Amino acid sequence: MQLEFFGAAGEVTGSCHILSVGDKRILLDCGLIQGGKKAARRNRDPFPFDAHKIDAVILSHAHIDHSGRLPLLVKRGFDGSIWTQNASADLCEILLKDSARLGEQDVDRRNRKRKRQGKKLLEPLYTSADADRTLKKIRGIPYRKPQEILPGVRATYYDAGHILGSGCVKVEIDENGQTRTLLFSGDLGQYDTPILRDPEPISHADYVLMESTYGGRLHRDRDQTISELGEIIQTARQSGGNIIIPAFAVGRSQELLYLFGKYYQQWDMGHWKIFLDSPMAIEASKIYWDYPHLYDEEATKLRKGVKEMPPLPNLQFCKSPQESRNINKLKGGAIIIAGSGMCTGGRILHHLKHNVWRGRNHVLIVGYQAQGSLGRRLVERKPYIRIHGENIKVAAQVHTVGGLSAHGDENDMARWYSSFKNTPPVYLVHGEKRSAREFQKKLSTDFGSEVTLTDPGMKLDLISGKIIDPGVPL
User: From the centroid of its chain, how far is CA 193?
Assistant: First the structure.
């Protein structure tokens, strides 16, 4: 009975760990590594395990840094079931198909140039057919309903409050009369965020595999965040420019539209043309609508009262490329929400290219930006960014609103851990080293917990609780 740490050990993206029970192997997530060209190349490396020998996958939620290499796993020989929460199963259909499509389009574009140069043609990481085969293997589970994944292995999903369908997964393991409970946090959301419920408390575990994305950092509280967002919108209106918002298609886009509707009068939103320029976000919004039983109390009341989310009469959905291109004719008065959330591709690049060099425009960063990503360069206030081979001056005002992050801050994560009646040892993943070290101090100081920073290849014996292989630091 062992747990091996692979992706997102010592970094944020590429979540992937392997649980061994007897002769069975179960993956916890199989996510895409994000953050620039170097990260993209790492996605093509061989897995540190044989895909044919993986018997099942437990997926915490649908975000691509947790699900995005599942089609590659299938392509390389995996033939088991993929278990996840019901809403996540539906969102995966959108996200994985879109990921495959974007990968194919990128390779087609690059191959046209390589063909002219006489170079060897590239292949996509995986195809739409691989994504379709993967989706057929996904099995949905309701929250709080134990499900036998394999003989002797049972998984129960609890609401993580991160995005719709996100789960903290309790994995109960029985091997040769020995039982252990592993709690995989997945990504934990903030408390008191719109639409979603708070992260669900769990009372007991023998081991906790826990994210640490915002270790050492605190978000502004909700009221301050709302005030900050309203002030940015007012400032942008006075400057006469556009607001460009890189947003994840699942979670962040829906929350922004909810807030724009809720504070429509207070923020004078009627003066803007609002664009959701993401076919994937449009489809994800429909799925959010289909799961009202997962809403928090406020959103539940609102849906019952008006039969829809807060209305935005000036909202335009942009599905076609031409509709997206038309937005760039607007020199002011537009709020443009587009993906990708880390500015690593997609339509947001075109909007940044047309707007970021103008001083009266504003860029609103509302989610985590991985190292190496273009979004990280914006957060770090770099004077230039590079888009489609062109260096572009950043003259627009860049605002980072951490309080809108889908990830809980250090206090949110500690609050969730405090629900355990025992004090289980913690193994930190999904965080840059500095953040993980800060959160390690927090848990050790506040709870007296035994907290371990993980490295790729580290192995934990779940019977003895001892590290049997230290792994290799990044």
Answer: 16
Q: Determine the structural domain holding residue 342 and report its residue range.
A: 222-404
Give average pLDDT by consecutive 10-residue segment, the chain, 474 residues.
91 93 96 84 93 98 96 98 96 92 89 93 96 98 96 97 95 95 96 88 97 93 90 94 90 85 92 92 82 73 55 88 93 93 88 96 89 90 92 95 88 97 96 95 97 95 94 78
**With contact defined as beta carbons under 8 Å apart, do 200 and 85 qualify?**
no
Q: Which residues contact 142 (CB under 8 A, 6 or more apart)?
A: 85, 86, 157
**Is residue 474 a part of any domain in this protein?**
no
| Amino acid in position 262 | K
Q: Which of 124, 127, 52, 57 is nearest to 96 (CA)?
A: 127
Q: What is the pLDDT of residue 360?
A: 95
Position of tokens 């290219």? 353
Q: Are residues 168 and 307 in the same domain?
A: no
For residues 201 and 298, membership in a common domain is answered with no
Q: Specify whether 199 is located in the same domain as 241.
A: no
pLDDT tens-digit map of 396-435: 999 998 888 889 999 999 999 999 999 999 999 999 999 9
Residues 6+ apart with CB under 8 A from 384: 391, 392, 393, 394
Model pLDDT, residue 300: 67
Q: Is residue 346 part of a domain?
A: yes
**What residues form DSSP beta bridges with 453?**
428
Alpha helices in 54-164 (DSSP H): 64-67, 70-75, 86-116, 128-135
CA 371 → CA 75, 290, 367, 464, distances in Å? 28, 35, 13, 36
- The domain boundary, picked from 404, 421, 437, lies at 404
**Amino acid 63: pLDDT:** 93
Q: Which of 351, 318, 348, 363 is nearest to 102 (CA)?
A: 348
Judge whether 439 and 215 are in contact, CB under 8 Å. yes
CA-based R_g, the chain, Å: 22
CB 192 within 8 A of CB 219: no
Amino acid at 122: L
Neighbours of 40 (CB within 10 A): 18
> Which residues, including other chains, have CB under 8 Å from residue 389's CB and lie 6 or more apart?
none
Tokens representing 456? 């790729």
Closest Cα partner for 24 from 178, 146, 136, 149? 149
**In the numeric block, which tokens belong to residue 353?**
């290219």
**Structure-token match 């008006």, residue found:** 306
The confidence score (pLDDT) of residue 221 equals 84
Question: Does residue 417 contact residue 210 with C-beta atoms inside 8 Å?
Answer: yes
Same domain as 249, residue 212:
no
pLDDT on residue 297: 73
pLDDT of residue 36: 74
CATH of the domain at 261: 3.40.50.10890
